[in-house]
Design brief:
This is protein-serine/threonine phosphatase. This protein has 726 residues and is α+β, with helices and mostly antiparallel strands. The chain has four domains: 2-157, PAS domain (Beta-Lactamase, 2-Layer Sandwich); 164-334, GAF domain (Beta-Lactamase), CATH 3.30.450; 344-582, Phosphatase 2c, domain 1, CATH 3.60.40; 586-706, Heat Shock Protein 90, CATH 3.30.565. The protein has 19 helices and 25 strands. The protein has a five-stranded antiparallel β-sheet, sandwiched between helices. The chain has a five-stranded antiparallel β-sheet with strand order 7-6-10-9-8, with helices on both faces. Strands 11-20-19-16-17 form a five-stranded antiparallel β-sheet. The termini are far apart.
């Protein structure tokens, strides 16, 4: 265009100037370029600037650093005076910051020839024709004119079909990339909306990480080929290195041309199914982040329309990929944090064997705060907890970790469910007024066969009987943690000898297709049918070690696949915890009442000798006699009755002494000459674990001793969570 020619002349012969005619020679220290010999007859400076300023087309000039050096009146009218002020970066002009502009400008400069293309203006969606003319001494002249209604061409024809198609392709890809969340979503969108229009067969999107090329995803390439380029230093892949260094696309029409340009990369073309390539740099905010390689199975010549379309599309892809990579990093980090805060394995205890599933949301850009845990308590009792921090994100995942740690700490104090939730609600309240969490905390006692639990805005547990009957308790639910005022209601379930307790968060039962009640109905039906069909509690040939856990894992998989068949489409994370409970046989528990006087210690020792003889634990008689003597002696001297002794045979020998006092026993420092104060030191030395739990009418001091094990068998380790302190 004429404007393009004028731009070239002005850039070649005259210094950059303002639209009003002022230039560098008018500034202090400015140089007078008019003194330089001209290559052709020069028009007066003022005349050239006046002609450029009066053009009906918008016109800009930029220097080698892409800073605006001149803008005429039409450019100021269309783009604004401040954005095109001399010295401003071309990339900062929001009115023309359309995808593809930077790539085309760099391409014109690299190829050293004028190019023209259509560009949709972001502000109003109007179509402009731009012509870029490189200036011999560096820089670029840019002219632009509105061709939305008709395109001024030399033959006077209206806007052509290729331009309309390019605009349509750009619009389709823009929409698809806007919906892309992950890096793989971006590659999928490019494959669907870019490859078919240009008849391409292959696609590889690569990022630059630590000086190496990393393959994000691909289409049309084998894993063996991708292994050849994934992780390769950038310096060894000279084709991509050239594209990123020059920041201009590279179009290679045949394998012979590729091997001529890059003979060291012949092994790649020999192993590639492609015979023509378009190497497109991915540039974001002036920074090279990777490349997009579009390939063709047959040699081809790239037309000007092909080059223009692919160059423009690469800018869209670069921005979308950068956004998706940021999401991938944050999402992976948040999921790693969340999984790190959940228990890696669940303990297999005498009274409970459990299995669990955590499923992050299939859609959405952040993780949630669902969590669960199984905590061993004293006397073979087991605490089971499940909860959900409201909201999504790293903050919620971190809050979940804090609550799980708090629950473990409070559970070690053997608190009742209502008291524990009261303390937990205070912790959530201290986090801020906008923090809430739901929680279910349950304690199962295998001796009394009672599971007591409290709810804070959470779904109650389901009880599955051996015959497949599923019981759903109909109880009142207290408000969530952070919003509830104590006290919390405590509910009880009386369990059969064996049963399943099922805990879940709302993400498992709720979905866009069903409400919570429908989901709970489906969950009950699934559990009942699975237990009835498989004979879960008495399966033939599955009585070996680990058989119970394996059956629980299978049941968890069945529940998840039934309730969340399309997990990728879910908007919320979900947690599932299934516990197989077993009650303690009556033959493994023995207890007696003792008088509130010094005779109690002797009677306790006699009872211990008799009961351990029945259980065949003669090796533990002496140590157990010492333990009960010290504990009952302390009760007689420092506490009060009623006094009761209970022995339990499990994976360890459990000895419990009950009294009517709420005083706390504690180990104190004693001197070498002190005659007393060493009783609890002796208890700690003889026991694997010991501690105290408080009851409504007193307290219980308990100890655990390892059972004698056959030669060659390792002793039982402490359960996860470590020993319970006094």
């Amino acid at each position: 265009m004429a404007a393009g020619g004028a731009a070239g002349g002005a850039g070649d012969r005259y210094p950059a100037g303002e639209p009003d005619g002022s230039g560098d020679r008018d500034r202090p220290g400015g140089r007078d370029d008019t003194a330089r010999p001209a290559r052709r007859p020069a028009a007066p400076r003022e005349t050239v600037l006046r002609n450029l300023s009066d053009m009906s087309e918008g016109f800009l000039t930029v220097d080698e650093a892409w800073r605006i050096s001149f803008a005429n009146r039409e450019a100021v009218r269309l783009l604004g005076a401040e954005p095109v002020r001399p010295g401003r970066s071309l990339w900062q002009v929001a009115a023309i910051a359309a995808p593809g502009l930077e790539g085309q400008c760099r391409r014109a400069t690299a190829e050293g020839r004028p190019i023209g293309f259509d560009l949709t203006r972001p502000l109003d969606g109007r179509l402009y024709f731009l012509r870029l003319v490189p200036v011999p001494e560096g820089g670029l002249g840019i002219s632009f004119v509105d061709v939305t209604d008709h395109r001024p061409r030399e033959d006077g024809q209206p806007l052509g079909v290729p331009a309309r198609e390019r605009a349509a392709r750009m619009a389709e890809l823009t929409t698809a990339l806007a919906e892309a969340v992950t890096s793989k979503d971006v590659v999928r969108a490019v494959a669907e909306h870019v490859l078919p229009p240009v008849a391409a067969d292959g696609l590889v999107v690569e990022t630059l990480e630590g000086g190496r090329i990393r393959v994000v995803d691909s289409v049309g390439y084998t894993r063996d080929f991708l292994r050849r380029i994934d992780g390769v230093p950038l310096t060894e892949h000279t084709a991509v290195a050239d594209v990123l260094r020059n920041r201009t696309p590279l179009f290679v029409g045949s394998a012979a041309e590729f091997e001529k340009l890059y003979p060291r990369l012949k092994y790649l073309s020999d192993n590639s199914p492609s015979r023509a390539w378009a190497f497109l740099p991915l540039i974001v905010s002036g920074r090279a982040t990777g490349s997009c390689v579009i390939s063709f199975s047959e040699p081809r010549t790239f037309s000007e329309d092909d080059r223009t379309l692919l160059t423009a599309l690469s800018s869209l892809v670069a921005q979308a990929l950068e956004r998706a990579r940021l999401f991938d990093v944050e999402h992976t980090r948040a999921q790693g944090l969340q999984r790190g805060l959940l228990p890696r394995t669940l303990p297999s205890l005498p009274a409970v064997t459990a299995a669990a599933r955590y499923l992050p949301a299939g859609r959405g850009d952040e993780v949630g705060g669902d969590w669960y845990d199984v905590i061993p308590l004293s006397a073979d009792r087991v605490a089971m907890v499940i909860g959900d921090v409201m909201g999504h994100g790293i903050t919620e995942a971190a809050t979940m970790g804090r609550l799980r740690t708090a629950v473990r700490t409070l559970a070690d104090l053997d608190m009742d469910p209502d008291e524990l939730l009261t303390h937990l609600s205070e912790i959530v309240g201290d986090l801020g007024y906008d923090y809430y969490a739901t929680c279910l905390y349950a304690v199962f006692d295998p001796v009394t066969r009672v599971c007591s639990y409290a709810l804070a805005g959470h779904l109650p547990p389901l009880l599955v009987h051996p015959d497949g009957t599923v019981h759903a308790p109909d109880v009142d639910i207290n408000p969530p943690l952070g919003a509830a005022d104590p006290p919390f209601d405590v509910h009880e379930l009386r369990l059969p000898e064996e049963a399943l307790l099922v805990f879940c968060t709302d993400g498992l039962v709720e979905s866009p297709e069903r409400d919570a009640d429908q989901g709970l109905t489906l969950l009950r039906q699934t559990l009942g049918a699975a237990v009835t069909r498989s004979g879960y509690f008495d399966p033939p040939g599955t009585t070996g070690p680990g058989a119970g856990t394996a059956r629980l894992e299978e049941l968890c998989d069945l529940v998840v696949s039934t309730l969340l068949p399309d997990h990728a489409a879910t908007n919320d994370d979900a947690a599932l915890l299934i516990a197989h409970t077993r009650c303690t046989p009556t033959d493994d528990v023995a207890s007696c009442s003792l008088p509130e006087d010094p005779r109690a210690a002797g009677q306790a020792r006699e009872y211990v000798r008799s009961q351990l003889d029945v259980w065949g634990l003669d090796d533990l008689v002496m140590s157990t006699e010492l333990l009960v003597s010290e504990l009952i002696g302390n009760v007689v001297r420092h506490a009060g009755g009623p006094i009761r002794l209970r022995l339990m045979r499990s994976r360890s020998l459990i000895c419990e002494v009950y009294d009517g006092s709420l005083t706390t026993p504690r180990i104190r420092r004693v001197g070498q000459t002190d005659e007393g104060g060493r009783g609890l030191h002796l208890v700690a030395a003889l026991s694997r674990r010991w501690g105290t739990r408080y009851l409504a009418d007193g307290k219980c001091i308990w100890t655990e001793q390892d059972l004698p094990h056959p030669e060659g068998e390792l002793p039982q380790e402490d359960p996860p969570g470590g020993p319970v302190g006094a």
